[in-house]
Automatic annotation (TrEMBL):
It comes from Pseudonocardia spirodelae. The chain crosses the membrane at residues 163-185. It holds the Pfam family PDZ_2. Residues 419-502 form the PDZ domain. This is Trypsin-like peptidase domain-containing protein. InterPro entries: Chloro_Bact_Ser_Proteases, PDZ, PDZ_sf, Peptidase_S1_PA, Peptidase_S1_PA_chymotrypsin, Peptidase_S1C. Residues 1-142 are annotated as: Disordered.
Length: 514
């Protein structure tokens, strides 16, 4: 079916219909300025100018000069008479039909038709894998010549006589070594013969927490040795660091020579070997305590314990510098608590009486001021005094006999804080002089002299009265009366129980200050 187009039907006329011609190109005119700038020059119709001729005339390119004879021989074409590069010299032309064989085809011996690679009809046959073929039995290899020992070791470079001499020398060295070994073994056996039995040993154990070695290792860095020099005389004692600011607690009788006439010097020696000067901050002769300060940044500070929690039998460790031997550690137990002890007037700057912790840890001159620590490493006392045999009893030798005394840290801490704050300490005073007495059943402190206008006189205490208790604490002697009064602060009112002419009496005393 054909659409009606107004054109004659080709089936009716029997001829091809006319084809439509393309529309003519609409080429707008160009601007004269643009044509002048971008148009072809006059006389040029193509895109490029015609190539210049290669003649020899003027304006043509010059051709390269002919090569030299050496260059032509090296790089030129071979003579066509030799057959060219495609066939060996002397080879004849192949059969024009392309199926010839023989001398005309030198690259295919036997003819190209016999080459399966040039025959498209050659069937594809897989080659057998390598190694499948039977190559037959391998030929047996003949044995090589055997080498002698001399050839293996020396490659025929040593004569047999020299080789024999080397063997003799080796035997001699071996025999000598055997004799030496036998002699050494015989000497070692002599140490344990005949039939000696050695004690069994065990591997070293790690020092557990709480052992003496572990506690001493922690406390030693906080203990110092104090060396006091006055003129040409020198003495030594100990101390313990109680504050990060460098405050060291020690005994008054250790530093007293440096604070008296002559103004000596004090040096502190730490466990690491460092030596620094020390200055006295304050001293309390009544309790034989003093505080010095050392210019050390961030020193190791000892832990402070509670002496009120001590019991007889508790393990304690004394650390100090007895006879100048710094870092000495001794161990023992608490032998007694609340033991009133009057210190030697020659060793102390005052008539000091302490309520001491007694221990059997070895304490000697030079331990004074050092710490007495418990099993945890906390300071529970300041080593102060010892009780030793007299020179006549010990043959002129004085030393520790297991009776050492330390100031309880509960008392020492309060006094040290007051010394750091004000430089001095005020103590309570009863205002009497007393002596120890007993009637065989009751012990006490008999008043020998009442200070006029003092606290005891104001309370009605008279000469001859026997004090048996102060604020509930029993008093068994004059020294115990002193420590019982000093447990209280000046101005405090305390009850004092007396025995006057065989009759008990209780008075209230407002303590004074000393």
């Amino acid at each position: 079916m054909h659409a009606t187009t107004g054109e004659p039907d080709p089936d009716a006329t029997g001829s091809a219909p006319p084809r439509l011609a393309p529309r003519p190109l609409q080429r707008p005119g160009t601007d004269p300025a643009e044509r002048a700038a971008f148009g072809r020059p006059d006389g040029v119709d193509a895109s490029f100018a015609p190539p210049p001729s290669h003649g020899t005339g003027s304006g043509s390119l010059r051709s390269a000069p002919p090569p030299t004879a050496a260059v032509a021989r090296a790089f030129g074409r071979p003579d066509e008479r030799d057959g060219g590069l495609q066939r060996p010299p002397g080879a004849t032309e192949p059969d024009p039909g392309g199926h010839g064989a023989g001398d005309g085809e030198p690259f295919w011996p036997g003819g190209s038709t016999g080459d399966p690679w040039r025959d498209p009809g050659t069937p594809v046959v897989a080659a057998p894998p390598p190694g499948d073929g039977d190559d037959g039995p391998a030929a047996a290899r003949p044995d090589a010549a055997r080498l002698s020992v001399r050839e293996v070791l020396f490659g025929r470079r040593v004569q047999p006589r020299a080789l024999a001499l080397l063997g003799v020398i080796a035997l001699a060295v071996g025999a000598l070594g055997g004799l030496v070994g036998h002699w050494v073994a015989a000497g070692a056996n002599a140490l344990t013969s005949p039939g000696a039995v050695l004690t069994a040993t065990e591997p070293a154990r790690e020092r557990p927490a709480g052992s003496v070695a572990e506690v001493a290792g922690r406390v030693l860095p906080a203990v110092v040795s104090l060396e006091v020099t006055v003129g040409n005389q020198a003495g030594n004692g100990s101390g313990v660091v109680i504050d990060p600011a460098g405050y060291v607690l020690t005994n008054d009788h250790v530093v007293a020579p440096a604070t008296g006439p002559g103004q000596g010097t004090i040096e502190a020696l730490f466990s690491d070997g460092s030596r620094v000067p020390a200055t006295v901050v304050g001293a309390d002769p009544m309790t034989d305590l003093a505080v010095v300060k050392v210019p050390v940044a961030n020193p190791t500070v000892a832990a402070i314990g509670r002496s009120g929690e001590l019991a007889v039998g508790d393990a304690v460790i004394a650390i100090g510098s007895p006879f100048g031997l710094a870092g000495t550690v001794t161990t023992g137990i608490v032998s007694a608590v609340d033991r009133p002890v009057r210190l030697d007037p020659e060793g102390s700057a005052g008539d000091a009486v302490i309520d001491a912790v007694q221990t059997d840890a070895a304490i000697n001159p030079g331990n004074s001021g050092g710490p007495l620590v418990d099993a945890t490493g906390a300071v529970v006392g300041i080593n102060t005094a010892i009780r030793s045999a007299s020179s006549a009893e010990s043959g002129g030798q004085g030393g520790s006999i297991g009776l050492g005394f330390a100031i309880p840290i509960d008392d020492a801490r309060a006094i040290a804080e007051e010394l750091i704050r004000t430089g001095r300490v005020a103590h309570a005073d009863l205002g009497v002089n007393a002596r120890s007495v007993t009637d065989g059943a009751t012990d006490g402190a008999q008043v020998q002299n009442v200070v006029a206008g003092g606290p005891a006189a104001a309370a009605g205490i008279a000469d001859g009265d026997v004090v048996v208790r102060v604020a509930g604490r029993p008093v068994a002697g004059a020294d115990e009366l002193v420590v019982a009064v000093r447990e209280h602060a000046p101005g405090e009112q305390v009850p004092v129980e007396l025995v006057r002419q065989g009759r008990p009496l209780t008075v209230t005393v407002t303590l004074g200050q000393r």
